C-alpha cells in the first residue's frame, strides 16, 4: 500500500509554472519574520506587535510570537542554527516516532528537532491560547522559520491545526532540512496540504544536507517553492507540488535537480534579503 502511493505520486507529470504575485509576496513577507529571529532583540517583528518571546536553554531553542492586526494573525517564528549547541541538535538525526499518531506505520521525525520543539511547545500553546480572546479570537496562526527553525515550524503545524481547530493555520519555512520520513511527509500533506510552504533558494544545500532515503530514512514534505534563478521574483519562483516525478515533496524539476548538499551562500540570502537583516521597527 505504501509503495503503491509512492508510485502513484511518482507518475505525476507537468511543466513547472511560476507562482502568482500574491504567493510570492507572502513568501517574502514571512521570510522577514524568519530573518528577524536572528536579531538579539526584536521589539516590532516585521513591524508588528511583539506578544512574547520563548526560549529553552538546554536545547537552545528561541523565537517569538507576534500579532498582526491588519492581516489578523499571530506569527510564531523560530530561530535557526547559530552555534555549536544548535549543530549538536541538528546532528541528532535518529528517526523517532512522532507523538500522538498511531497505526502500522506511524510517522517518524528527526530526534533533535522534535526534542527542541517539545521544549517550547507548552509555552507556545499557552501563549496562543491566552492570546486568542476577544477581538483576536478568530485570528489565523502562522509558523515560520529558517534553517532548523523551519523544521520546528513544520512540527508546529499539526499542533496549531489540532489544538486550535477554529483558526486557520499555515506554515512557511526557508532552507529547511529534511525533517521526517515518508510517512511524516504523507501526514503533513494530508493534514495541512497547501497550507505548508517550504521555500528553497537556488542551490541552497541545507534542504539536502540530510540525505534522501525514501524506504528507510528522510523525505521532504510538500509543498516546495523553488526560486531557481536571479533576480528573485514571482517569475523565477515555481510551485513544485505536482511537477516532474515527484515523491511527495521531492521533485526532480525543482531543487532536487541541483547537486548541492552543503551550506553555501544561497542558504543565507532569500529573495535578495540576507538572513542577518532584521525587520524590527514599527
From TrEMBL:
Keywords: Hydrolase, Signal. GO terms for biological process: lipid metabolic process. Residues 75-212 form the Fungal lipase-type domain. SUPFAM superfamilies: alpha/beta-Hydrolases. It comes from the Eukaryota. This is Alpha/beta-hydrolase. The lineage of its organism: Eukaryota, Fungi, Dikarya, Basidiomycota, Agaricomycotina. Residues 1-18 form the signal peptide. One of its GO terms (molecular function) is hydrolase activity.
Amino acid at each position: 500500500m505504501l509503495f503503491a502511493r509512492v508510485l502513484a505520486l511518482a507518475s505525476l507529470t507537468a511543466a513547472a509554472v511560476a507562482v502568482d504575485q500574491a504567493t510570492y509576496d507572502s513568501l517574502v513577507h514571512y521570510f522577514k519574520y524568519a530573518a528577524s529571529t536572528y536579531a538579539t532583540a526584536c521589539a516590532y517583528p516585521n513591524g508588528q506587535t511583539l506578544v512574547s518571546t520563548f526560549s529553552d536553554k538546554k536545547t537552545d531553542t528561541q523565537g517569538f510570537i507576534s500579532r498582526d492586526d491588519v492581516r489578523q494573525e499571530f506569527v510564531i517564528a523560530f530561530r535557526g542554527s547559530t552555534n555549536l549547541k544548535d549543530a549538536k541538535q541538528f546532528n541528532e538525526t535518529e528517526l523517532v516516532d512522532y507523538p500522538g499518531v498511531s497505526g502500522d506505520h506511524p510517522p517518524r521525525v528527526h530526534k533533535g528537532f522534535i526534542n527542541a520543539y517539545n521544549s517550547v511547545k507548552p509555552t507556545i500553546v499557552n501563549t496562543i491560547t491566552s492570546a486568542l480572546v476577544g477581538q483576536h479570537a478568530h485570528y489565523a496562526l502562522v509558523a515560520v522559520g529558517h534553517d532548523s527553525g523551519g523544521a520546528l515550524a513544520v512540527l508546529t503545524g499539526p499542533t496549531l491545526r489540532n489544538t486550535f481547530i477554529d483558526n486557520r493555520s499555515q506554515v512557511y519555512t526557508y532552507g529547511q532540512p529534511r525533517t521526517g520520513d515518508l510517512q511524516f511527509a504523507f501526514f503533513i500533506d494530508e493534514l495541512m496540504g497547501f497550507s505548508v510552504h517550504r521555500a528553497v533558494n537556488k542551490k541552497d544545500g541545507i534542504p539536502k544536507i540530510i540525505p534522501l532515503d525514501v524506504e528507510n530514512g528522510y523525505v521532504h514534505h510538500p509543498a516546495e517553492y523553488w526560486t531557481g534563478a536571479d533576480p528573485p521574483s514571482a517569475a523565477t519562483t515555481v510551485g513544485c507540488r505536482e511537477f516532474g516525478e515527484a515523491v511527495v515533496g521531492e521533485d526532480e524539476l525543482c531543487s532536487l535537480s541541483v547537486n548541492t548538499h552543503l551550506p553555501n551562500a544561497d542558504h543565507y540570502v532569500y529573495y535578495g534579503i540576507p538572513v542577518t537583516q532584521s525587520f524590527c521597527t514599527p
